[in-house]
Design a protein that fits this description.
This protein has 700 residues and is α+β, with helices and mostly antiparallel strands. Among the domains are: 257 residues, Quinoprotein alcohol dehydrogenase-like superfamily (Methanol Dehydrogenase, Chain A); 85 residues, Cytochrome c-like domain (Cytochrome Bc1 Complex, Chain D, domain 2). The protein is built from 13 helices and 39 strands. Strands 1-33-34-35-36 form a 5-stranded mixed β-sheet, with no helix packed on it. It has a 4-stranded antiparallel β-sheet with strand order 2-39-38-37, with no helix packed on it. Helix 10 crosses helix 13 and helix 12 packs antiparallel against helix 13. The longest helix has 19 residues. The structure holds calcium ion. The site of calcium ion has 5 residues, from loops.
């Protein structure tokens, strides 16, 4: 700056100052409705979750492009405080980056140098980790008129001073007696902060709430499923929704429909689109035995920003029984369909189809499979309903359903390039076995699955042999997809079946992280690899691009964790990489380097005598009910921050009862289970773990 300042004097100097994004940063995060709606006029900033309200995650910057991307190098890296999954999308405004890390912590960084400006820790109690399904990751902040908003894992919505990181207000958005958690990023619309929550696997009722950004006072709340059938309906929308549910079991089990990720504001049509999650419990034969579509689970719902009043909905999977939330990113665009411009929404959710929906009325325009799918053969475009095959009906016998509960594509952000006309997203092929358990009872206290399904060994491949049987069905890739013709344009296979979020740019590039530890740039029209960098850990999050002082940067959060990381056992362990959490930032001719990866110490195996087959089988059931969330299928930890329970030491075995029932490791996020488990059940879990230690020793 000094260099230029010397050259300018008087008025010319001040004119330069006024136009300089860095010097204008005197007032941090000075983002208002006008700036957000006109975000495309500021390609150097990334002011909201999907860069613009369209949530396309396309950067118009083209300094880094297909002819020079091979020169990309590390500009700087910021090490986050904690080793847990990183799913954040950083916000960058006027030279400052605002990012979340694990445990909903927030950091403000100089976007050019990585210098830490401030940090904020909401001090989430570590045992709250056990209330959620999918690690303590967070997907990012929102900014508005000098404030930074973060939703903490334990359900608070917090406003911070963008200049200092000091807390301005905090509002509890959930009932802490139920297993609500928040991993999603808030969105800001006309001075309101919108936030949903998670917990669809643990028995909660979903909703999204709008709060006044200045005061934290709630303005409206939209429930996604009906409440207590004994009480009057909250409004006409709930009266309508309740007609699609049967009996009262849905209320006992929560109902689900949690809005844990996507919320998209459409300034053109003045609508907010809400991505509604799966039901609670998963099993429809238990929660709504006499049929019904179960609105609004697995739906996109449009509401009015001023009031939260229902306008229209489109349900992707009526009476969803497969953990198919419509929570994936909702992208707005105008596409030429049959030669006519149509205002559309696009979504690529777990269901295995790419959906194109008319956002003026919620009518389905098209839906096509992008991966292995067996629950539906396609969609009837007249009714907008899926054509069910019967292969997803597990009311009478267990069924292996494609896609499985990890989804054909999950939460990882995707991008749409208006320049290439293509969508870019990661694809996962992994089925799940679903089975009806009508004897299941809702467990009042959390810390266990509440699915009303048998989480059997067939659903969770435990040994290498069982995994090998699944092998023909497994796969993962990066797909480029034309949403107008609904056809795949190119596909690049990945080694690990899950992969990271994508960014596309006007430089004819697509960026994506991989779970085998790389950050990669592809040519957007062909999928040719043009550049890659070693991230030392899995890269799950969505990349962003921004510029400071005329120089373009590409940034991405790194660190394996999340649902796939902590639960998928051998499949997530396949990378063999530790979780090292960082914000990685690249630019042309960047010369930065990462410190060498730590070498993990070789672990000794303590192998007690083999328990009885009966004890092992009983222990497996208890483990899969209570422990598998965090400790992984088959007790194989897929991540370095959760202990692999096959390697229990003699000392830990002696303390085992105290750790599980007494909370000896509560400070590390291992809660006590004295309400949920009896001592004899803890012993059975231990017996099962001993069996798994034998399996490991025997190479199984
Ligand atoms: Ca779910």
């Amino acid at each position: 700056m000094k260099h230029f300042a010397l050259k300018f004097t008087g008025l010319a100097f001040f004119a330069f100052v006024a136009n300089s994004p860095v010097l204008a940063a005197k007032s941090p995060a000075a983002v208002d409705a006008k700036r957000l709606i006109a975000a495309d006029t500021e390609p150097g900033n990334w002011m909201s979750h999907g860069r613009t309200y369209s949530e396309q995650r396309f950067s118009p910057l083209e300094q880094i492009n297909d002819s020079n991307v091979s020169r990309l190098g590390l500009a700087w890296a910021h090490k986050f405080d904690d080793e847990r999954g990183v799913e954040t999308t950083p916000i960058v405004v006027d030279g400052v980056m605002y990012s979340t890390g694990p445990w909903s912590k927030v950091v403000a960084l100089n976007a050019k140098t990585g210098e830490v400006l401030w940090k904020f820790d909401p001090k989430v109690e570590r045992i709250v980790a056990a209330k959620g399904c999918c690690d303590v990751a967070n997907r990012g902040v929102a900014v508005w008129e000098g404030k930074v908003f973060v939703a903490s894992y334990d359900g608070r919505l917090i406003a911070l001073d963008a200049k200092t990181g000091k807390q301005l207000w905090s509002t509890l958005t959930v009932d802490t007696k139920r297993s609500y958690t928040i991993s999603g990023a808030p969105r800001v619309v006309n001075g309101m902060v919108l936030i949903g929550n998670g917990g669809g696997e643990l028995g909660v009722r979903g909703y999204v709430s709008a709060y006044d950004g200045k005061t934290g006072k709630m303005k409206w709340r939209f429930y996604t499923v009906p409440g207590d059938p004994k009480k009057p309906y909250e409004n006409d929308t709930m009266k309508m929704a309740a007609k699609t549910w049967d009996g009262d079991q849905y209320y006992v089990w929560g109902g689900g429909g949690t809005v844990w990720d996507s919320i998209s504001y459409d300034p053109e049509l003045n609508l907010i689109y809400i991505g509604v999650g799966n039901s609670s419990p998963w099993n429809p034969y238990v929660r709504s035995p006499g049929n019904g579509d179960n609105l609004f689970v697995s739906s996109i719902v449009a509401v009015r920003p001023e009031t939260g009043k229902y306008v229209w909905h489109y349900q992707l999977a009526p009476r969803d029984g497969w953990d198919y939330p419509a929570t994936s990113q909702i992208i707005q665009a105008t596409l030429a369909i049959d030669g006519k411009p149509r205002k559309v929404l696009m979504q690529v959710p777990k269901h295995g189809f790419v959906y194109v929906i008319d956002r003026e009325n919620g009518k389905l325009i098209s839906a096509e499979k992008f991966t292995t799918v067996n629950w539906a053969s396609g969609y009837d475009l007249k009714t907008g309903r899926p054509i069910l095959t019967g292969d997803g009906d597990y009311s009478k016998q267990p069924k292996l359903v494609f896609p499985g509960t990890q989804g054909g594509h999950n939460w990882q952000p995707i991008s749409f390039s208006p320049k290439s006309g293509l969508l870019y997203f990661g694809e996962t092929r992994l089925p799940s076995l679903h089975s009806n358990d009508t004897t299941a009872k809702f467990a009042e206290r959390g810390r266990r699955w509440n699915l009303a399904e048998k989480f059997t060994i067939d659903a969770a491949p435990e040994t290498k042999e069982q995994l090998a049987q699944l092998e023909p069905f497994l796969g993962g890739s990066l797909i480029a997809w034309d949403p107008v013709t609904q056809k795949k344009v190119w596909q690049i296979p990945h080694k690990i079946i899950s992969s990271g979020g994508t960014l596309s740019t006007a430089g004819n590039l697509v960026f994506q992280g991989t779970y085998d530890g790389r950050f990669v740039a592809y040519a957007d029209k062909t999928g040719k690899v043009l550049w890659e960098s070693n991230a030392q850990t899995a890269v799950m999050a969505g990349p962003v691009s921004y510029s400071v002082d005329g120089e373009q940067y590409v940034a991405v959060g790194a660190g394996l964790g999340g649902a796939f990381g902590v639960t998928a056992g051998e499949l997530s362990k396949a990378s063999g990489l530790p979780t090292i959490t960082r914000m990685l930032v690249y630019k042309l001719d960047g010369k930065g380097t990462l410190p060498p990866s730590p070498v993990s110490a070789k672990k000794e195996l303590d192998v007690p005598p083999m328990p009885s087959a009966e004890a092992i089988d009983k222990g497996r059931v208890v483990f899969n009910d209570h422990c598998v969330f965090c400790h992984g299928i088959g007790a194989v930890s897929g991540v370095s921050f959760v202990p692999d329970l096959r390697y229990l030491s003699k000392e830990t075995r002696e303390q085992f009862m105290g750790i599980v029932l007494g909370g000896l490791r509560a400070d590390k996020g291992m809660p006590h289970f004295h309400v949920q488990l009896k001592p004899e059940e803890v012993n059975l879990v231990h017996d099962y773990l001993v069996k798994r230690t034998h399996d490991l020793k025997d190479g199984k």
